[in-house]
Design goal:
53 residues; mainly alpha; 92% helix; rod-shaped; membrane; transmembrane; transmembrane helix
Length: 53
């Protein structure tokens, strides 16, 4: 195996790791949006209850 083949193999491996990592981040980003939405709704509800609306 020469240096060029080794670099190609490393590049292919890094591409697959990058693809997996970006999918992982997208997954967590979706759940973070849902969690923030629920949290914001709870805070608004508490404010409305305290104010008495």
């Amino acid at each position: 195996m020469n240096d060029h083949d080794l670099l190609i193999r490393i590049d292919v491996k890094l591409d697959s790791l990058y693809a997996g990592f970006t999918n992982h981040l997208k997954h967590h980003f979706r759940y973070n949006i849902m969690a923030w939405t629920v949290t914001l709704g709870a805070i608004i509800s508490l404010i409305l209850i305290v104010v008495g609306i």
